[in-house]
Amino acid sequence: MRHAVALVFMMLFGIPSYAIDGTALLKEVDRNLNPESYESYRKLINVEPDGRKKEYTLFTIKKGMDKVSSVFLAPASEKGRSTLRLGDNMWFYIPNVGKPIRITSLQSVVGGVFNNADILQLDYAAEYNVERVEQNGNEYLLYLKAKTKTVAYDRLKLYADGKKHLPVKIECLTEANMLIKTIYFKDVKDFGGGIVRPSVIETDSPLYKGYKSVMIFAKLKARILKDEAFTLTYMPNIESLR
Amino acid sequence: MVLVFLFSFLSSLFGVLSLATAEEYTFDVSETEKKPYHIGGYAEIRPVLFGLDRDASLYKLKFYNRDEGSTLEEYNATLQLEGSLEKGIARLFVRTNTDYKNSYLGEDFETTVHEGFLSLKPSSSLTMDVGKKTLKWGKGYAWNPVAFVDRPKDPDEPELSLEGFIVASADYIKSFQGPLKTISFTPVLIPVYNHVNDTFGDINKLNIAGKIYLLLYDTDIDFIFLTGGSKTTRYGMDFSRNITTNFEIHGEFAYIYNYKKIFVNSDGSTFVTQYDAKSALIGMRYLTEKDTTYILEYYRNGTGFSSTEMRDYFSFINKGYDTYVATGNDALLKKAANITAGNYGRPNAMRDYLYLRASRKEPFDILYFTPSITGILNISDKSFSLSPEFLYAGITNLELRLKASFISGERLSDYGEKQNDSRVEIRARYYF
Questions:
Q1: What is the pLDDT of residues B106-124, one digit of tens each?
Q2: Coil/strand/helix, residue A44
Q3: CB nearest to A228's CB, from B124, B139, B242
Q4: CA dihedral (A64, A65, A67, A69) positive or negative
Q5: pTM of this prediction?
């Protein structure tokens, strides 16, 4: 009898959340954030507790689910430095050093709260499986679990707008559910070409109390790119694609 | 602690200045407009204080006829300029390096073109370069035994830009789906004639080098060769791979045919031996949860000297010095100086070395502050150098570094016979 009651309750309250296809929703969130292949400009701002800022400007290209590359345009001390990500592989090229070196996703080439995985973000669906979805009013909460151990954050709690299917907030967690950082998506803007998405991403972290990092997007547009642009050999030349 | 205070003070000072102009986060898209040209570079000043080891062989070799006391000051300044001009598929790039040095020898001023080449990019798969450039082959951080077409880098400053050679090279890249994601081929021609690359090796030769790069099963793999006569034929391979999100491994192997080694015994008799030399490097980079990065490398230098050969060399210098003190005749010391240049005098001239660098990102909650410590151990004779440094890059385009080096070793050992016991330097570098 108790089992039958439980079954009725599950049917009444459980089905609505499981009825949502989490994987399809996550893929939709990815596509709403940006086209599968695109170019964009970004400004990264690291803000210290006293309000002091340090800014970086990057040109970024992405192709498919797992290829992304960026080159620093400013400040002068960083100009020409480029980063490349192919799936779990990441490299950093410094013109003076003259050769790409492998870096890891948890490091940060710019300091501040954003790490390399944040700066070279792939599609969420490329790195995470959807464990479950909850619908709370006009908001979805997607519980994401990393597909492999090489992904920077083991778990994500992705809060998505129920209508626009765009992320509002993402909590990045360790395997033990410890909060590493929170990413906020703000200022939805029409970039043209059907791309309407948040133009500002902010992040803070209990590990960096008082610090904040901000990423502002500009000139985001779909672009067809050759696979060869996403190779180590091409890293010194990424700026030629601008 | 004093440093922490100093950096905190600087942070506060510049913080006040930027607060005065605090504003909302804006991104002016005019910043992203592309110009066909670029001019930039950096200027730096670097005063150095050396603590001399007056009993060391290399001190005697350099200062036998002068007394510079127990410390030596040196004032260095560098201006590195780079410029590029881009039009269509063509790009011209030049990087020059001007060094000013004021030392016990007086003033010295030298400008070198580190790189200057024309690059043509007819497609995203093909790039062709002609001119002076550095190739920087190899995966090692401190050493690169497979960098056959580069000048040797200084393991104490592995990130400094180096002067290149005049070459003609191409890069052909192809990408695939599947376990083999990328393959690229880099053929290189290195002419060596009078006034053209004449420090590379024997002159009047046209040398050919090449590199095949594969990204296979998430592993970078290079196969490398050099032949042509200026240097003996040599082959190499290297690899690099991320094991986890915070752990990377890399390695290099070089096989040099008929390597010619010139060495002296303690009497000063010169010997030449020829053999196939095998050099190797294995290393790792590891990032801890507390944001400390460790770089560990073991280097087997197949072209290096044994402990006995090195002791003979130092003993010969000491003999030359004793002769000079007794008779005023410096002929033996001059012979020792001749055999030092490019041979015993190259960085890490012996056989087995261990390199460890630990750098901690932003401790004490000071953003952009990175303290590091680097140790290089000569495994054969247990002599070593230890270099702590503090880097602060919190002010846009300005990099401040305080670095010290302490070396230790028994008499007739690699580091024990260096001319300095210690070194302290401050470097301020401004990028523009």
A1: 999 999 999 999 999 999 8
A2: strand
A3: B124
A4: positive
A5: 0.83
